[in-house]
Amino acid sequence: MISFNHSMKKIYLLIFASALLAIASCKKSDGLPDATPATPYVADNSFKIVSYFPSYRDPAGVADAKYKMITHLFYAFLNPNPDGSLAPLEQPGRFATVMQKARANGVKTGISISGTKSIFVTMAASAAARSLFVKNVLLFSTTNNLDGVDLDWEYPSTADGSADTYLLLVKELSDSLHHHHKFLSAAITPGVYSGSVRDGLKSEVFPLIDFFNIMVYDGIGWDKEQPVQHASYNMAVASLNYWLGTRGMPKEKAVLGIPAYGKNAANASKAYREFVATNNDTSLDFATINGVEYFYNGTVTTKRKAMLAKERANGIMFWEFYHDDNSDKSLIKAANDALGRNYN
Known about the structure:
Layout: H1 2-27, E1 48-54, E2 72-78, H2 92-104, E3 108-114, H3 117-124, H4 127-143, E4 148-152, H5 162-179, E5 183-188, H6 196-199, E6 211-214, H7 233-246, E7 254-259, E8 261-263, E9 269-271, H8 272-277, E10 286-289, E11 292-295, H9 299-312, E12 315-319, H10 331-339
Parallel strand pairs: 1-2, 1-12, 2-3, 3-4, 4-5, 5-6, 6-7, 7-12
Antiparallel strand pairs: 8-9, 10-11
Helix pairs in contact: 4-5, 7-9, 9-10
């Protein structure tokens, strides 16, 4: 009987151990990694050169050498649904290609999350939807071995209450990503227009987000000295004055957006590479194609903005990677040269 009881105890122990393993397996069925970081999260405060790669662009259109000219690359976009689920990624093959090229050149990788404002408003207003969204974003970023996530909600507002729910969403997303040593950035308004959109980004979000990609473009008519220029140097100065001066955004979190495209008086766009291809003088800030004049940031203004960012902010951002030219007239190259950065 002693031998039998001893054997039965061993069997019971084995059954108990198996049950524990089964329970543990069930707990990890969501595919998320263990949430016990060995060390606390530390933000990367180095100077950043950020660019976005839209899903509708062919990766073959960007020279491999260009990846050495940036520090962060976001694939655009991953779209949320109102219930917090995520729509299937567009062009996953392109996503895999550009992420591989970025990693091979030491570039930090991320996904930019964007979509219709109404979807964000609905999703962020629900605690359950926010929770599911955060879980899904973490799962996507870990499954794809990404360094971080960019939130491109255009825009939270005080007019519809979404300023408050944006803050709640950012807090939950920040806690989740930072716990797994992944960064969180956000694309934000240039802040040069007063109103509910500008006020929709509360200062309480500043400690939660690693860096802000300030979209200082699409501002036709703002600069009275250059009314058709959608992204003047003066607009960049005013944007930094507002976010860093008036609002107190920490300098290390501010990334100055620079467009790699131009606009005409009718607000139609053309990529910078088209101005190069049509033999325009790209040291200037305007070009003519088929009799239509476009205003953009040429190499001289891009260099000035890069130096402005070096002095007053902590990075520059380009929308978007494909828009830029692959030749020696590249705007991203011009910015690197002004900064004295080695990209060979």
